[in-house]
């Protein structure tokens, strides 16, 4: 999906440089760049590691980047590293990725998302991060609503959202009076739903048509 979406706006090398070789991770605030490199060097050749720091105090914010030489190495790191790192592909630098992804993690991913990992407060090295961030504001659930100006094809939409692990069902609904598309997506965990919303809200499918992805109430307590 990343490759197909990005090739229209630049060369393949640009895609590799900006979107497919750099990963974004949540780390203990005690980590140095050398610690970060040591933890992730087993997955491939690292070009550089960097830790996001408070510009005033110089202290780590508990977030970092690892840049690999090959997209396959970055993909392997995301798949195989400990889930507590919450590893994802980083946004390109020209999209103000530091502020965008820091907001994403501080608002969404530090919670104990059911079926994913232990809460950070049960892992001593992450306690400082848990205590200093504000609690999640946006209600989340395992269920998503997907809206489009164009009608959906069931098999294609299922295949798109199935790229995120844990898809339970994809229900495409048709309105005979309009040409718009509407579907309900449900994942096995809230973690998967959050990741799917983060990556696919605004995604162009088909090209030129942006998807709108929002959370739907699923009857569970979102404060969990």
Question: How are the SSEs placed, and which strands pair?
Answer:
Blueprint: H1 2-6, H2 12-20, E1 22-26, H3 33-40, E2 46-53, E3 60-68, H4 71-80, E4 88-89, H5 97-109, H6 127-132, E5 143-148, H7 154-161, E6 167-174, E7 181-187, H8 190-200, E8 212-216
Antiparallel strand pairs: 1-3, 1-4, 2-3, 5-7, 5-8, 6-7
> Residue ranges: pLDDT <50 for 5 or more in a row?
104-136
Shape: elongated
User: How far is it from the N-terminal to the C-terminal residue, by CA?
Assistant: 31 Å
Written as H for each helix and E for each strand, in order along the chain, the element string is HHEHEEHEHHEHEEHE
Structural class: alpha+beta
Q: Percentage of helical residues?
A: 25-40%
Spatial order of the strands forming the largest sheet = 2-3-1-4
CATH domain topology of the domain at 16-89: Alpha-Beta Plaits
Q: Characterize the biggest β-sheet.
A: 4 strands, antiparallel
DSSP helical segment count:
8
Radius of gyration, CA atoms, in whole angstroms:
18 Å
CATH class of the domain at 16-89: Alpha Beta
Keywords: Repeat, RNA-binding
Domain RRM: 21-95
Protein name: RBM45 protein
Pfam families: RRM_1
């Amino acid at each position: 999906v990343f490759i197909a979406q990005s090739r229209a706006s630049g060369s393949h090398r640009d895609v590799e440089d900006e979107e497919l070789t750099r990963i974004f991770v949540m780390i203990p605030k005690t980590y140095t760049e050398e610690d970060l490199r040591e933890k992730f060097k087993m997955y491939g050749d690292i070009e550089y590691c960097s830790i996001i720091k408070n510009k005033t105090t110089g202290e780590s914010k508990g977030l970092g980047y690892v840049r690999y030489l090959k997209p396959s190495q970055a993909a392997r790191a995301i798949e195989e590293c400990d889930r507590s790192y919450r590893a994802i592909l980083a946004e390109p630098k020209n999209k103000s990725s530091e502020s965008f992804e820091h907001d994403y993690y501080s608002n969404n991913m530090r919670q104990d998302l059911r079926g994913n990992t232990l809460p950070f407060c049960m892992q001593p090295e992450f306690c400082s991060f848990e205590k200093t961030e504000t609690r999640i504001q946006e209600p989340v659930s395992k269920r998503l609503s997907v809206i489009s100006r164009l009608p959906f094809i069931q098999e294609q939409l299922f295949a798109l959202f199935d790229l995120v692990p844990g898809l339970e069902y994809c229900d495409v609904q048709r309105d005979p009076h309009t040409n718009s598309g509407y579907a309900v997506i449900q994942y096995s965990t809230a973690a998967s739903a959050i990741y799917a919303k983060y990556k696919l809200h605004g995604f162009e499918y088909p090209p030129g048509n942006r998807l709108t992805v929002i959370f739907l109430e699923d009857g569970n307590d979102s404060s969990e």
